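Hey, I'm writing a tutorial for new members on how sequence and structure tokens pair up, and I'd like a real worked example in the thread rather than a made-up one. If someone can provide the structure for the chain below, I'll link this post from the tutorial.
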Amino acid sequence: MTNDNRGTLYIGVTSNLVKRVYEHKNRLCEGFTAKYSLTKLVYYEMFKDAENAIRREKVIKKWNRVWKIRLIENNNKDWKDLYL
């Protein structure tokens, strides 16, 4: 999630992406995403199980900002909102 192209980034895990993004967009979640108005879904990955999703989340969170931006731009160069 982000608030703008190359803006503040949030990385998280959920079992229901559509519901979770809706919550962020409508500011139903308190915390980091609400504080920085992170309402734009610009990248996501799907996993068959929570264990692998959490493992991947932890890896990406350790990356530096340049790597995270490169990951997004390799898949979504225009930073379009991918929310349905």
